[in-house]
Design a protein that fits this description.
This protein has 441 residues and is α+β, with helices and mostly antiparallel strands. Helix content is 18%, strand content 25%. Strands 6, 7, 8, 13, 14, 16, 17 and 22 form an eight-stranded mixed β-sheet that branches. Strands 4-3-2-1-5 form a five-stranded antiparallel β-sheet. The structure holds calcium ion (CA).
Length: 441
């Protein structure tokens, strides 16, 4: 940790003082443009309810030192260039931005009109995808999720024998990753109920969300060269929230023998601000406790540092707002609260495993954790688990019930970190509303 984490640090941007999401200790990166402006976005840093325009900072000579090296990357319409510059440059830029924004910044003291040139209100902006995601991989890192889902489908053998030896994952689809706020059309597809003789085609009836944490790859690794677990965190630029929308009826019919396909690739929503690994430093936690009978990871997935502090203690929450609730002006209701510290596999283990065969990761690649569930019922990160496949429907404040998502439902995911002695930081929102299936005439 360094001076950028100091909880007593104050900022000249008024809304950053006591901000629950974006105080000066957070400084997440994103791609924004002014509302109605059109065209490509540019790199910004969230501060309070404002955005620091990094291209404007470079133009005004506000970012010196190693920060100067990022001028070209900060003028780009995606974070890939900045991600590719590696951990040292990123840390240098964070220190420069922190120094510029702190209350005693000489640049601001000598020029109180500075804010008008380098800040844009978040309310006047729209957030775009933070990176051009070349490849997207989704893991299955919560043993609680895997055990719950496994016990529904295989009561005698909920957890398969490979689970505690390697992080299970599949290659997802990057083209359908959308930023928070993008509507999601109910997918159509094939499904087959147990009673039916043959499958039918139509709108999914068992649409679900999955609450996940995503990580963006930094500089990446050459094809054929694995990333050792000791250096795996250097390959992590930062984190966002991920909603891996899932059509359970399509999934049940298609997933054997090659895994998820059309049940998952119709949309994946991500939160637009990328919270860096540096910002999360005060919230590192030991890798989730394994029981004595669990196997010790093989050497390429094991390190002392990973065991001691490999996890990130991000609290994740899911809220639901139905059309009926909005009509009656009822606030979104919280469905669950879990923690990424409960994941069986850590971010470094996901990176080390992914590259262990020589597979190359590139700047801006997205790796998602899989549904984050904990041991308690209130921490289950999808409706499949919360309603136990529809057997235990939820009741909303309007009296409506839910087994799975209905048209008009809006799923809102939030994430934050807090502990004594550190400033609370947030991830912002990952939001998406379900609209009816587009049925061909
Ligand atoms: Ca998933």
């Amino acid at each position: 940790m360094d001076q950028t984490h100091d909880p007593s640090l104050t900022c000249w941007v008024e809304s950053a003082e006591g901000a629950a999401e974006f105080p000066i200790q957070n400084l997440p990166f994103g791609i924004f443009r002014r509302r109605g402006e059109g065209g490509p976005g540019r790199v910004g840093v969230a501060i309070g309810d404002m955005i620091l325009d990094l291209a404007a900072c470079h133009a005004g000579g506000q970012l010196g030192g190693t920060g100067r090296l990022t001028a070209v990357a900060c003028g780009a319409p995606a974070l890939n260039g900045l991600m590719g510059m590696g951990a040292e440059t990123r840390r240098g830029l964070r220190r420069q931005v922190s120094a510029l924004l702190r209350a005693d910044s000489p640049a601001y003291r000598s020029d109180p009109g500075l804010g008008d040139r380098i800040l844009v209100a978040q309310s006047d902006s729209e957030m775009l995808l933070p990176a051009a995601v070349g490849d997207y991989t989704d893991f299955y890192a919560s043993v609680h999720h895997a055990t719950n889902v496994g016990s529904m489908f295989r009561p005698d053998n909920p957890l398969l024998s490979n689970y505690k030896w390697l992080p299970i994952g599949y290659h997802g689809r990057a083209s359908s990753i959308v930023p928070s706020g993008t509507p999601v059309s109910r997918p159509q597809g094939q499904s087959k109920s147990a009673e039916a003789e043959s499958p039918s085609f139509g709108p999914s009836r068992l649409l679900d969300y999955e609450m996940e944490l995503g990580l963006f790859i930094a500089s990446g690794n050459p094809l054929g060269q694995a990333v050792p677990i000791e250096r795996a965190e250097d390959q992590i630029f930062g984190f966002c929230l991920v909603n891996d929308w899932s059509a359970r009826d399509l999934q049940a019919w298609e997933y054997q023998p090659l895994g998820p396909f059309l049940a998952k690739n119709f949309a994946t929503t991500i939160s637009p601000w990328v919270v860096t690994l540096e910002a999360l430093e005060p919230f590192r936690a030991p890798a989730a406790t394994r029981s004595p009978e669990d196997p010790r990871p093989l050497p390429h997935l094991d390190s002392a540092r990973n065991t001691e502090a490999g996890a990130v203690a991000v609290t994740v929450e899911v809220y639901l707002s139905s059309a009926g609730m909005r009509d009656r002006r009822i606030e979104p209701v919280r469905l669950s609260r879990g923690s990424a510290a409960d994941l069986y596999w850590t971010p470094a283990q996901l990176v080390a495993h992914h590259t262990s065969n020589g597979c190359n990761l590139r700047p801006g690649d997205l790796l998602a954790s899989g549904t984050i569930s904990g041991p308690a019922k209130e921490s289950r990160g999808c409706l499949l688990e919360l309603t136990w496949r529809g057997a235990e429907p939820l009741t909303l404040p309007t009296g409506e019930t839910r087994k799975f998502l209905e048209d008009g439902d809006e799923v809102i995911m939030r994430g934050f970190c807090e502990r004594a002695g550190a400033a609370r930081i947030g991830f912002g929102e990952c939001r998406g509303r379900v609209r009816p299936a587009i049925v061909r005439g």
